[in-house]
Write a structure and sequence with these properties.
Layout lengths: L10 E4 L5 H10 L3 H5 L13 H11 L3 H26 L5 E7 L7 H12 L6 E6 L6 H4 L1 H13 L16 E6 L1
Parallel strand pairs: 1-2, 2-3
Antiparallel strand pairs: 3-4
Length: 180
C-alpha cells in the first residue's frame, strides 16, 4: 500500500523473535538440542559445578548473552501483554502483509503461524501472504536470508503472485495462502 502523503510503499512483515535463548542454544548445539537436552528441567538446587548448569551458563555468557537477559525478559513480558492487541490492530490495517515462518521452528511451531494467519491476517484488507521457509528454524534472517529477502521484495512490489515455491526448488519458500 502506498502512503498517500509520500507515495512510498509500506510493507509489514511479521517476524517472530521470541525466546532468543532457545534459538541461540540450538544454533550453538544443533537443531532441536534445547528440547533434547531438557534444559528447562534442571533442578535449581543442583550445585554450580553440575555439567548441565556449567554448559548453560557458558551458553548464556557467549557474546554477553547474560547482559541481554533483562531486555529479553522485558520484551517477552511486553509481548505477552500486547501481542493480541497488536495483531488485532494489524488485522484492520490495509498495508500489504506477509507472514513468514520457518518450518523447523521449535520455539514457535507452525501451528502458531496457522493460528495467526487464520485469526488475524487471512481476512484483513490489503494483499496478504503466508509463506513457509522449509530450510528455516526460528531465526529466518539467519537460516534463509536470501529467501526472506525475496519474500520481502515480493511483498513490497505488491504484484500478484501465484501460489508457488520460489525458484521452483524443493527447498524454496512456499507461498501457502494469500488474499487478494
Amino acid at each position: 500500500m502506498s502512503d498517500p502523503g509520500t507515495g512510498v510503499t509500506r510493507v509489514a512483515v511479521y517476524l517472530d523473535f521470541d525466546n532468543i535463548v532457545i534459538s541461540r542454544y540450538d544454533q550453538l548445539h544443533g537443531r532441536g538440542q534445547f528440547q533434547r537436552d531438557k534444559v528447562r528441567a534442571f533442578d535449581r538446587t543442583d550445585k554450580a559445578a553440575d555439567p548441565e548448569i556449567v554448559a548453560l551458563t557458558k551458553c548464556f555468557a557467549h557474546n554477553d548473552g547474560i547482559g541481554i537477559l533483562p531486555d529479553t525478559i522485558q520484551y517477552l513480558n511486553e509481548r505477552a501483554a500486547d501481542e493480541t492487541n497488536w495483531l488485532a490492530a494489524l488485522s484492520t490495517n490495509e498495508i500489504n502483509t506477509s507472514l513468514v515462518w520457518g518450518l523447523h521452528d521449535n520455539v514457535s511451531p507452525i501451528r502458531v503461524a496457522n493460528f495467526v494467519w487464520q485469526k488475524f491476517l487471512h481476512d484483513k484488507p490489503g494483499r496478504n501472504r503466508y509463506w513457509i521457509l522449509p530450510t528455516a528454524d526460528h531465526y529466518l534472517q539467519c537460516d534463509a536470508a536470501a529467501q526472506l529477502a525475496h519474500v520481502v521484495r515480493l511483498t513490497a512490489a505488491a504484484e500478484p503472485t501465484a501460489l508457488c515455491t520460489l525458484g521452483d526448488r524443493p527447498d524454496g519458500a512456499v507461498l501457502v495462502d494469500q488474499t487478494p
